[in-house]
Specification:
The complex is a heterodimer. Chain A is mainly alpha-helical. Chain A has helices at 2-11, 14-54, 58-73, 76-89, 96-122, 125-133, 138-167, 180-191, 195-222. Chain A has a single domain, classed as MetI-like fold, CATH 1.10.3720.10. Classes of the chains: A mainly alpha, B alpha/beta. Chain A: This is Amino acid ABC transporter permease.
Chain lengths: 226, 248
């Protein structure tokens, strides 16, 4: 019984939780902002790179593939730490928030480029030929015939990857970003009680279960009539 | 018919894939309103020849004039030229994310610059011409293969091309669906459309073609009216090919 009581005192201490709820809620807000910025910028850059890659310019494509492979290979935390501690040494100081945003944006860009690219190449060659044979230009064909089909194929892997990378916002706590985990950890130090971490976990669930559900909805919504 | 200047005039076409020459200096000229059938064993280069005629395939050498346009000249606006050259593919290649009508409308709007109402009207008319007025709002996956191919024909003829290229238009169809597509092609022919058809539909060739071209090994071996090619082929390869086809 004592063990249970001490567990509840440590992790479900309602008094502590009530006290630090505003702090963790602020962290939630920051996580939302950070996540949105990462998703919007990362996916936009990934799509842009995939589109540029479809032009088939050899040197440019080598550069894209190299960049993408680098950011797919590096652990996100390594990129964050490198940017946060490395850039000031180069005379460029960068906030923890910016370092986290930039790192995860680059990682999402890299992974989503590969997914978008796979989607583009999965569209049968006949679709290009049919569209081009009616006089549509390369870009018109890409935009109106190929991408709509490619994007539908990419929705499931893309939502998965996007969710996985946005959860990486927790890494920002390492460089002093007061997002959910960062805020919870501060609250834990102030209160000398780990209950705020429970609060943080709940905050992640509150944030990401709807996102996961949204992903599922998008997947069914975009699967077209067969 | 043969005295009017050719609407398609291809000369000395060469095409290599890797080290393999698929076209070895082929000439093809087609008169206005003529229906030319290209037959030959697989690998003879007949599809490649057809695909060169709208530059889906880039010839390595030679010249192609279509409706007075030098197709291979770097100065030619290829997209503008292509809208005068309709093409129908073996695998239909309809856009699966669009309805039949939207499939037809796309190029009307984006290539010819028509507004939505005008394009919708012309698309409806083209689909009516191929007998699919009632299926306009269906997606390709909701149509049979024969219906899909007719939508593909409508998509091409809506642009009012000067010539139509057919690349094995019935090869992917179940036998009972072939007739509908051939009927549409027959009507196009009656309306005076210039057509180049790569196909194994020999009965259709006999009945409808003005001229049959027999190709083998990247060369045009023999050409002439269907009666000559089918009943009195001069070349041994042609004879062998016709014999084999007739057995089926």
């Amino acid at each position: 019984m004592d063990a249970l009581n001490s567990f509840i005192f440590s992790f479900f201490n309602l008094k502590v939780m009530a006290q630090y709820l505003p702090l963790v809620a602020q962290g939630l807000g920051l996580t939302v902002v950070l996540a949105l910025l990462i998703v919007v910028c990362g996916l936009a850059l990934g799509l842009a790179l995939a589109v540029i890659r479809s032009f088939g310019l050899r040197v440019l494509n080598w550069a894209i593939i190299f960049t993408v492979d680098v950011f797919r290979a590096l652990p996100p935390l390594v990129i964050i730490v490198l940017l946060f501690f490395g850039l000031p040494a180069a005379g460029l100081s960068i906030s923890g928030f910016a370092a986290t945003w930039l790192s995860l944006t680059l990682v999402l860009m890299a992974f989503s480029e590969e997914i978008f690219w796979a989607g583009i190449t999965a569209v049968p060659k006949g679709q290009w030929e049919a569209a081009r044979s009616t006089g549509l230009s390369f870009l018109q064909t890409l935009r109106m015939v190929v991408l709509p089909q490619a994007l539908r194929i990419t929705v499931p892997p893309l939502t998965n990857r996007t969710i996985a990378i946005t959860k990486g916002t927790a890494l920002g706590s390492v460089v002093g970003v007061a997002e959910i985990l960062g805020a919870s950890q501060s609250a834990m130090s102030f209160s000398a009680n780990p209950s705020p971490l429970t609060l943080g976990a709940i905050a992640y669930l509150v944030l990401f279960i709807p996102v996961v559900a949204l992903g599922r909805w998008i997947e069914t919504r975009f699967a077209w009539k067969r | 018919m043969t005295h009017s200047p050719p609407i398609i005039d291809a000369r000395g076409l060469w095409k290599k894939f890797g080290g393999l020459a698929v076209l070895k200096g082929v000439d093809l000229s087609v008169a206005e309103r003529e229906l030319v059938f290209i037959i030959g064993p697989s690998g003879s280069g007949k599809s490649t020849l057809l695909r060169c005629l709208n530059r889906l395939e880039e010839p390595d050498d030679g010249s192609i004039q279509v409706d007075g346009i030098e197709l291979l000249s770097p100065k030619t606006d290829l997209n503008a030229a292509r809208r005068r050259i309709g093409m129908v593919f073996q695998s239909f290649n309809l856009y699966p994310h669009m309805t039949a009508r939207a499939n037809v409308m796309l190029a009307l709007r984006k290539v010819l610059g028509q507004d939505k109402d005008q394009a919708a009207q012309l698309a409806a008319r083209a689909l009516d011409r191929v007998g699919l007025a009632e299926r306009m709002d269906h997606y390709p996956a909701q149509l049979s293969g024969g219906q899909q191919q007719r939508v593909a024909i409508a998509r091409a003829i809506a642009l009012e091309p000067r010539v139509m290229l057919f690349d094995e238009p019935t090869s992917a169809l179940d036998p009972e669906l072939v007739g509908g597509v051939l009927n549409v092609m027959r009507e196009l022919r009656q309306d005076g459309m210039t057509m180049v058809v790569v196909s194994h539909e020999m009965a259709f060739a006999k009945a409808a073609a003005d001229r049959v071209v027999f190709m083998a090994d990247g060369q045009k071996l023999e050409e002439g009216p269907p009666a000559q090619i089918f009943d009195a082929p001069r070349h041994e390869r042609t004879r062998a090919f016709i014999r084999q086809i007739d057995r089926h």
